[in-house]
């Protein structure tokens, strides 16, 4: 759907590098996580896609076509700094932004009604934005973003300001859009959302892409051969020999169950064979790092 090739962007006459040789490939109908610490270059890339600014070099393609002004109507962008008018009624804003994206007034009203029903906000049409809470205003911003049925949806911290119930409501709507064929770029610091929603990710740090790939594959790259184990009916003598062979830590013994973590690069089947000789294996699982752990480790290693 979207392909960026060797994008470079600088500011202050080339003194500040925002993006350096940045390339990603976002598959159609997927949710693609764009991750990185503050100032890494994510917002600069999003602004280039939206043609708010231009890259110094490199190309962006949408559905194989070089990015051009006609693509604006195919893109929905929800910025982290929200851009609605506080003293304008909700309904008037919906119509205004819909018409900016090429919709007729009637089409914008009909599409808005569907979204207002979905998000349980049908009573807000005549309210001014200044009368709404931050979370309520967030819902209006979301509707404005998706109103024109964009093929590419760019969401920058879409859950900011939401309580858990409404965050889950918006998450469900994003997943439904994806299931209906919308391609979504999700920029967020909420790593649990990345694990729950994203198919693929790219991690940007100091203007460069340092990791990309499918979420599970990225997590796999950072695993450390650590396994969590719970045993019952443990033979103490055999377990002592087992401890001499493996690196054991986080050892607990409660309710006649021995639980611990072990670190070893041996084949999992070989580890299991050793375990069944010293007790009954109640649980055995490899500990794959969370996206939060991946983020911290990757950024720390490239500081």
Could you list some keywords that capture this structure?
Rossmann fold; Alpha-Beta Plaits; 2 domains; 6-stranded mixed sheet; 30% strand
Characterization of the model:
The protein has 303 residues and is of the alpha/beta class. 35% of the residues lie in helices and 30% in strands. The strands form 3 sheets. Strands 6-7-8-3-9-10 form a 6-stranded mixed sheet, sandwiched between helices. Strands 2-1-4-5 form a 4-stranded antiparallel sheet, covered by helices on one side. Helix 2 crosses helix 3. The longest helix has 16 residues. It is elongated and about 80 Å long. The two termini are 31 Å apart.
SSE blueprint and pairings:
Layout (H helix, E strand, L loop, with lengths): L1 E10 L4 E11 L4 E5 L6 H8 L7 E6 L2 E2 L8 E4 L11 H11 L4 H14 L15 H13 L5 E5 L7 H16 L3 E5 L3 H7 L2 E6 L2 E7 H7 L4 E7 L3 H10 L1 E8 L2 E7 L4 H9 L3 E7 L4 H11 L2
Parallel strand pairs: 3-8, 3-9, 6-7, 7-8
Antiparallel strand pairs: 1-2, 1-4, 4-5, 9-10, 11-13, 11-14, 12-13
Helix pairs in contact: 2-3
* SSE string, helices as H and strands as E: EEEHEEEHHHEHEHEEHEHEEHEH
pLDDT under 50 segments (min length 5)? none
Biggest sheet descriptor: 6 strands, mixed
**CA-to-CA gap between the ends?**
31 Å
Number of strands: 14
Mean pLDDT across the residues is 91
Strand content: 25-35%
CATH class of the largest domain: Alpha Beta
């Amino acid at each position: 759907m979207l392909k960026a090739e060797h994008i470079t962007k600088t500011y202050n006459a080339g003194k500040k590098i925002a993006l350096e040789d940045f390339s990603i490939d976002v598959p159609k109908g997927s949710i693609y996580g764009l991750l990185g610490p503050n100032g890494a270059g994510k917002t600069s890339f999003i602004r280039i896609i939206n043609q708010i600014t231009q890259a110094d070099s490199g190309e962006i393609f949408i559905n194989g076509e070089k990015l051009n002004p006609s693509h604006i109507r195919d893109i929905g962008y929800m910025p982290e700094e929200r851009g609605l008018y506080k003293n304008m009624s909700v309904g008037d804003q919906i119509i205004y932004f819909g018409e900016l994206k090429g919709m007729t007034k009637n089409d914008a009203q009909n599409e808005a009604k569907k979204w207002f029903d979905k998000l349980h906000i049908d009573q807000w049409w005549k309210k001014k934005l200044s009368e709404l809470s931050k979370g309520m205003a967030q819902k209006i911003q979301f509707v404005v973003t998706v109103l024109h049925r964009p093929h590419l949806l760019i969401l920058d911290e879409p859950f900011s300001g939401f309580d858990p119930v409404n965050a889950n409501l918006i998450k469900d709507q994003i997943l439904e859009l994806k299931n209906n064929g919308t391609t979504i770029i999700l920029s967020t610091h909420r790593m649990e959302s990345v694990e729950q929603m994203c198919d693929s990710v790219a991690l940007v740090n100091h203007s460069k892409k340092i990791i990309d790939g499918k979420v599970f594959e990225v997590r796999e790259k950072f695993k450390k051969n650590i396994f969590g184990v719970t045993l019952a009916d443990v033979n103490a003598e055999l377990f002592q020999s087992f401890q001499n062979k493996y690196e054991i830590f986080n050892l607990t013994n409660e309710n006649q169950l021995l639980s611990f973590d072990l670190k070893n690069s041996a084949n999992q089947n070989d580890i299991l064979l050793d375990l069944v000789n010293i007790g009954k294996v109640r649980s055995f699982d490899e500990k794959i790092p969370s996206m939060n752990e991946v983020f911290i480790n990757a950024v720390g290693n490239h500081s």
